[in-house]
Specification:
Elements (H helix, E strand, L loop, with lengths): L1 E2 L10 E5 L5 E6 L14 E8 L6 E8 L8 E2 L6 E4 L1
Parallel strand pairs: 1-6, 5-7
Antiparallel strand pairs: 2-3, 2-4, 4-5
Length: 86
C-alpha cells in the first residue's frame, strides 16, 4: 500500500520492482485505495521504487521475496529522494 504521511491512500503512484541488476521485473500503478499487486514474481532479492508527481521518490532496497509472501508498504513525502534499507 502507498500512502502519504497522514496515512491517506495515494492513487496513481508508479511502482516498479527491480532485480539486483537494476532490471525492471514488473511495474504497475496504485489503485484508488493505494494498493498495488505484482504477480508471478520469483523468489529473490529486489528493490522497490515508488513515485508520484508532487511527492518524493521512495526507494526500498534489500527486499527478499520468499515463496508465497511479499507485501511492501511505502509512504511518500514531499522533498528529497529517500533510500530505505530493509
Amino acid at each position: 500500500m502507498v500512502t502519504d504521511p497522514s496515512g491517506a491512500a495515494l492513487a496513481g503512484a508508479n511502482v516498479r520492482l527491480l532485480d539486483e541488476n537494476n532490471s525492471v521485473i514488473a511495474q504497475t500503478t496504485t489503485e484508488s485505495n493505494g494498493q498495488y499487486t505484482f504477480s508471478g514474481v520469483s523468489v529473490g532479492n529486489y528493490r522497490l521504487e515508488v513515485e508520484r508527481q508532487g511527492f518524493q521518490k521512495n526507494m526500498i532496497s534489500g527486499h527478499q521475496r520468499h515463496a508465497g509472501a511479499g507485501r511492501i508498504n511505502s509512504i511518500l513525502n514531499c522533498g528529497w529522494d529517500r533510500v530505505q534499507k530493509l
